[in-house]
Amino acid sequence: MPIHLTGQRDADALLETDAFALVVAMVLDQQIPLERAFAAPLALKERLGGELDAAQVAAMAPDDLRAAFSEKPALHRFPAAMADRVQSVARIVVERYEGDTSRLWSTASDGKELLARIKSLPGFGVQKAQIFVALLAKQLGIAPPGWEAAAGQFGVPGSFVSVADIDGPAALAKVREHKQMLKAAAKSLAVAEAALAAERD
To answer: What is the pLDDT at residue 144?
Structure first.
C-alpha cells in the first residue's frame, strides 16, 4: 500500500522503498510536525549527494552529518542532537544487521522480537516502538506473528491514534484530532492537580 505521510510523492516513495529512510523518519518524528519528520530523509539524501545508506551515515564524521542536518532549512528543531541519534542508529544497523536496515524486521521471528529490536534503537521508547510495529504492519504489510499484541493500542484496526493509521488527508485529520484531545485532557488534569495542590497549601 502506498504511504501518504508527507504530502510529497517523492518523499513518500522513498519511505516505501528505503528501510533506512523509514527508520530515520521515525527517529525524527518528535517535537516537529510529522510531515516534516517524514519528508526529512529525502532532504537528507539530497544533502548527502543523492545517497542515504546506513553504512555511509555510520562512517561519516559527526560534524559533517550535523552540518547536513543544520543546513537551512534545518531538518529538525534540534538538528545536531538528531544527527547524532541518527548516526547511532546507523551504526547499530551496520553492527547488528550487516548494514541492511530491513533485516531489523525481516529476520524477526515474531512481533515480540520485532518490538524488542526497535526498542533497543536510540530514541525509541515503548510507545514509539509500538507505533513503528503498527506502521510496518498497516502500511507496508510487514506483519510477523503477534504483531498486533506487540503494537498494543496502535495495532487496533482503524484506531486513528498514530501515524500508523494515516493513509491520506482524512486519516491525518482524525489522528490530529485525537492528539489534540489527549493534549487538552493532559492540560485539564494538570490544572486540576495544581488547583488541588493550592487548596492543600
So the answer is: 97
